[in-house]
Design brief:
91 residues; mainly alpha; 21% helix
Length: 91
């Protein structure tokens, strides 16, 4: 865990019951929902969020698109579409 006083990563040994208590403190009771799932914080409320940002005069930087290199087929020379990326472990 990261110690909030020092900001350093530390290791702590706990009995199982204490560990479960610390984990279960973050679980909401039945029928409760996180507040971020409602109102303008909901995932589908982009228009409401932009309206709130406009009213509060909050400027959000636009995300710059990542420019990826184009790979061409060795046989036909056409540009290939990326379907997935696979990262290999260094040997």
């Amino acid at each position: 865990y990261i110690n909030s006083d020092t900001g350093k990563t530390e290791t702590r040994t706990l009995p199982g019951e204490d560990f479960l208590w610390l984990v279960l403190k973050h679980v909401l009771p039945r029928r409760f929902r996180r507040s971020r799932d409602y109102g303008f914080l909901h995932g589908n409320a982009k228009r409401k969020l932009s309206l709130v940002q406009l009213v509060l005069n909050v400027m959000v930087k636009a995300i710059e698109p990542v420019i990826r290199p184009q790979f061409k087929c060795k046989q036909c020379g056409e540009v290939m579409n990326h379907i997935a990326f696979r990262f290999l472990k260094p040997t």
